[in-house]
Amino acid sequence: MPPSHGMGRGQGAQPVAASTRVPTDGMRNLSTGTSTQGPTVPVQRQTPMQYRPAQSMPPSHGMGRGRGAQPVAASSRVPTDGMRNLSIGTSTPVASVPVQPQPPMQQIAKTTTTQTEAVSLPLVPSSTKHIKPPARPGFGTVGRKIMVTANHFLVQLGDKNPHQYDVTITPEVTSKAKCKDIMKCLIDQYQATHLGNRGLAYDGNKSAFSAGPLPFDNKEFVIVVPEKDGRQREFKVAVKFAATKDIDHLRQFLSGRQHDNPQETIQALDIVLREAASHERIIVGRSIFSTAFEMGPLGDGVDYCRGFYQSLRPTQMGLSLNIGVAFYRAMLVSDFVMEYLGKRAPGPLTEQDRIKVKKALRNIKVEVVNGGFKRTYKVQNVTREATRELTFIDSNGTTVSIVQYYREKYNTTLRHSYLPALNAGTDAKPVYLPMEICRINDGQRYPKKLNAWQIRGMLDATCKRPQLKYHGSGPQSEVSPFVGTWNMKNLKMFNGGTVNYWAVVNFSRQKPQAVDQFVNGIISMCRARGMVFDPQLIPTQSPNSHNIEKALINVDRQCSTELEQRAPGKSLQLLIVILPDMTGSYGLVKRILETDLGIVSQCCQPKHVMKSNPQYFENLAMKINVKVGGTNAILARPIPILNERPTIIFGADVTHPQPGEDSSSSIAAVVASMDRHATKYRALMSAQPHRQEIIEDLDSMIIDGVSEGQFNDVLLHETDQIRKACASLEQNYQPRVTFIVVQKRHHTRLFPMNHNDRSNTDKSGNILPGTVVDTKICHPAEFDFYLCSHAGIKGTSRPTHYHVLYDENKFTADGLQTLTNNLCYTYARCTRSVSIVPAAYYAHLTAFRARYYTEGMGSESESGGRTTRERTAEVRQLPAIRDNVKDVMFYC
Questions:
Q1: How confident is the model at residue 287 (pLDDT cuts 50, 70, 90)?
Q2: Which CATH number does 497-627 carry?
Q3: What is the pTM of this model?
Q4: DSSP readout, 605-659?
Q5: Matching Pfam families, A to Z (predicted)?
């Protein structure tokens, strides 16, 4: 916040203490077995861990303006013995615990016999409209303490209360940027007089804030705003006092004497801070960019731009680098079309290309650059006809072609009249703009999903080693993961699946000999890892890929005929599918097999057929094993909560349509653990209204990706749904529930204090897996923590934020942090720890699988007869998954 406002001063980031569990020797052993031995499940309890006194927090760096960012330190505890042990073996399947609904939770449920007592402070009663999240039960103590740096900058609150004013602009303006231009003119004209030399921070909508009161309670201003075309436009701006935000309330909350989060006060300060940083910069939500920062092309007319993310949070202001936003490049629309479509020579567009261009340009602002005339329009559509075919009726009632109009009025000959025109109006009242006289305005965010080449360019541009970015800132039965990874060589799966009936279909153009060799490599690896594979049911089929559905139905029919003769009553267990060389067929194959035919499948990209890579075969073997009911690995030391009583770990996620798609439904998915090792999960999914985060059909569901503003709504709705589901099984049945939100898409980063200290960093220069932080940068009173459970690969590792919203199981800090970290080593699809608990990961995969089921169920209306609001209101139900597919982890 600018010092002149008197509301607060900023400090450079200061050292913050936290603790991280750094993995020590012996704490990551994986137990495995051979094909002749039973499962190895150690029953020895974990021995008490040795605690080391916490390191004292470094002295505070001095406050002041103009100083470089000072490191925010956190002591991190690293996992100690037994935190990540896994058991693997080959023997009979592990008995499944009866699925009696025990603590359904956002992610984890548990009961512990001890609990750290929280300090009791006098608290102001909170609203009865909220379920109050549990207080922090103390801080974690397990592990070796280290110091890490966080990208948080401490903020000192001033003494003046922010005053909020309602702003009404007449005539109404819908553009936030235009509203800000009008308010800027008001401040420039009246700050020294009517505003009493006070600044105003405006949110671009209905609210403005000042440090202290303005000289009036209600006043109307007349503002004259210059337009780009040289004209002037008059607006009336009414400014009316609305409320005073209590800084002292916020100060009490930060000190722990007040439980009610003064979110409105924090939002007011947030707006003030963003206003100060927004001048001469590009604002995208909470992210701030500038063309003065590093920029570069991503291809297809799209640039990346470096920037930073700014957000005030309780006890912290998170100034986090956010480098994940792309922008349209300022260029002529005709040039953009050529680059976007990858055309080397100009020419007319096919209907398919026109639709692509329409989706890319819809709602983009363009400036007409024709002689001295300049005006900005928003693109609404792209015409079906070429520009040379378009006409309109002029003021004299004469029909005039677009080409003739520009030639006669502006002496401009359109060179690309074969291209369609932009329509900046409506279908009823079109405003046609030739592409070659329109330039895309600079600094517009690219909202669509990046393609593979753009993603690669973004990673190359943004994934720097953390030191560079923030300078200053078989025979074997056990295996010990090293820095979050391990090798399956000489190991067998804990429970190798049996596949008696399987087949192969090849849609690619690869030669039959190469395909046979590739399939033999997969099966050999599966057998080497402990699976049982009988000979192929029918010879490999190589149908034409032009009609995939018909080909799959024919393969299913052949297999059914063969099974009727060999094993009546049996069905195909696995279909290995080599996809066509063209992209886009994966979703179709999965939808047909899983919802129509009821066949579990493993799809393979044709580019891997000729490589015969053992690592690829091993990855496929792990996926195939869980798809046929096997178990790859379990924790060597039993998870206490799961071992002591029947417990279910739930995971839930909601996936929304791709950026730029406003008509599709959102997909909700939930998974639930089916065994005491928390390695087998069943999944359910459902469609719900567009962009809705709260799960409607949750009668039993951990939530991934819920924003903090949605915590209370999600908690109120979904705990009620869980209770109803339990009551439907047995009257008065109320298992203890723990509800945890998993947040991955945040902007907090943790860095080693010393990048050259190999004992505290991995090969990528990141903090070690197992690092947990629950002090300083976490919530002042509630139960949350940051956990980096995975090893870095490229760029800066992002810790996962776990926030406990509801806890009837009374977890201790160490108990929940250890459980969460351990579970991250049980992910079935790879031999490395993952960044979020597998329950949330599997729910995410399930939701995305359901997205494939909706492909082809509806297409975008080209007639313009239905509005976005109408399309959004319709929720198409998902096709049902066949029972034999639901019984296994088909989504892996």
A1: low
A2: 3.40.50.2300
A3: 0.65
A4: -GGGTTT--HHHHHHHHHHHHHHTT-B--B-SSPPHHHHHS----EEEEEE-PPT
A5: ArgoL1, ArgoMid, ArgoN, PAZ, Piwi
